[in-house]
Design goal:
Helices cover 36% and strands 31% of the residues. With 132 residues, it is of the alpha+beta class. The chain has a single domain, classed as Molybdopterin biosynthesis MoaE subunit (Aldehyde Oxidoreductase, domain 3). Helix 3 packs antiparallel against helix 4. The protein is elongated. It starts with 9 loop residues before the first helix and ends with a strand.
Length: 132
């Protein structure tokens, strides 16, 4: 199974966000675009030099957990706009894993919220199996 979802346009997302009723409260939008990398997670995160290169990834997620993480992100200080898209299926190196857009009042709040949401998505919501 290859990836089956159409990749969103961040330009379109930003245009929609700026038309949203919350836009008057937003001083900053931040985006995240996670992609499948050819370097194994074990090498990047733990320094395991024996980790084989990655040729792709099988990626899936739990939508209810994603929705809960997004809802919780809205509860953070100064956060007015949150949107997340996750891919699924068998992905190749360079394919998009996820897009996240966060809008909020000031930079520290938005940076913290982006790190919070991406962290939750990666640790609680997704299943990733690297392919060698």
């Amino acid at each position: 199974m290859s990836h089956i979802k159409e990749v969103p346009s961040m330009d379109a997302w930003l245009k929609e966000a700026k038309r949203h009723p919350s836009a008057e409260k937003v001083g900053m939008y931040l985006t995240h675009n996670g992609v499948v990398r050819g370097t194994a997670k074990a090498l990047v995160r733990q320094g395991d030099e024996t980790a084989a290169p990655v040729s792709g990834m099988v990626f899936s997620y739990d939508q209810k957990k994603v929705d809960a993480a997004v809802a919780d992100t809205y509860k953070l200080d100064g956060i007015c706009y949150v949107r997340a898209w996750l891919n699924e299926g068998t992905l190749n190196v360079g394919d998009d894993i996820m897009y996240v857009l966060i809008g909020g009042d000031i930079r520290p709040h938005v940076v913290d919220a982006l790190q919070y949401l991406v962290g939750r998505l990666k640790t609680e919501c997704v299943r990733e199996t690297e392919l060698n």
